[in-house]
Amino acid sequence: MTSKLVACISCALLAACSVSPAGPCNDDSQCAAPAACDPGRHVCVLPCEPKCGAGQVCLSARCVQQGPVVRSVAAPATWTRRAGNVTVMATIDSGPDFKTASAALHVAGSADVAGTTSDAGAVRTYTFSVPASVQAAGSEAPVAFTIDAVDEAGHSSRPDAVGVGQLLIDDAPPQPGGVTVNGGVTGTDGLQWFKQAATAPIDAQVSVQDQGSGVNVSTLALMAGAVRLDNGTPQCAASTTSPAVLCHFFIDPQTPLVAPGGQGEIAFTVAGQDAAGNAMTVHQAKLGIDGKPPVITFAPAYPTAGADCNAGGGDPDNIFCGHDGSHFFRAGDARHSLSFVVNDASGDVGSGANPASGTCAIPGTACTATFSAAGSTFSFPADFSAATFSSAADGTGDVQVTVNATDLVGNAAAPVQVAVHVTRVKWMRTMAGKVDTFKGSPVATTVPVPQVIFAGVERDNVGGPIASIGPDGTVLWRTGHGDIATISNN
Length: 490
Description:
It is built from 2 helices and 37 strands. The protein is mainly beta and 490 residues long.
């Protein structure tokens, strides 16, 4: 081996080495064998340099194809469902010396798919009918594959001559990311409620995501059973940060799913498909339509009989209490309350009572109702001290009290007016046989307890009795007849 050839071999790994004993070359005759003239650079170079092409090896200073070479692969660029077969095409070149005997497509974990061809030349086009079931169930990730071949001499495609590609098979449905109903008011059930008489459309916002073929926007709809809720033209925009679309659907609040003047919750689903035809995962949401006024129940609960009065003190037959179970005191009952219930779910479901809507009206005096969520109840003090009031001879009469309220979307209940029974009499005590007629005026004292002391004159006794009555009608003490002289002397 000459020193020049050794030098060329040592540098062959880095670049083409020229041997030019006669200087720059124009043809192979000017180069020392086995070098040849590089017509581009006009220098002598060793054969097989630069590197041989795909599927070739360097033999006897020549690049020789060894085994079939997959020149091109054509797989569908559109997505398909996990059903049927997917057709893949590949062009395979076995070179001038041999013909391709067979070709196969490989997917990891699946059986090989043999190719078919009607070509007979050195370059043949093979067709592969790949079962879509090579995709894992429920997956939408692209499926990678390789294609290789064997020639008539038994040479297989070298690793650098194998064809590669991916199958777009989508077996995962689109996923709704959630439904947001914009506008309306939040009802007592947590849903967004809308007044049926409203004319502005309801805006339901839905995010739909699909990692595979993508969302087919034209198929999206809001469905309540077999009825479409939205107006058929959702406004959708693709997300810039995820494979999702954000859509706004528009719903007529006068939808026939709720009868005119009715109310109710409407359950609906987001329906649609991805580009491969997979149906959307079921996702249910609700909203409320309310066209029905609430109903007010107002039945005064009077203080129990004997409340705030002496229960009789052993003498029940001689005391009468204004709290007889069917009257309020004209004055002094502000600690008691009147209540009314606003029912917005009579036979169906509505938005609920509006806590800020309850009103009460007592003629002649101011009145403010306070809401309690428990039972949707409004309450106000039973204060009739300044109310417009006319009483009969027995001190009783009625005060006309009116209450009103609305539901959360603004439907007004029919006002309810009730005649509330009121009495001027807090208590009376019969003193027959003890005091007959008064002489002078009663004396009031607060020691030891608030009391009224008065004296009377009996018909048959000049020294009449004395009685002390407490604030609730209780007889605190009394004396009379023969004892009166002793008390008078003292």
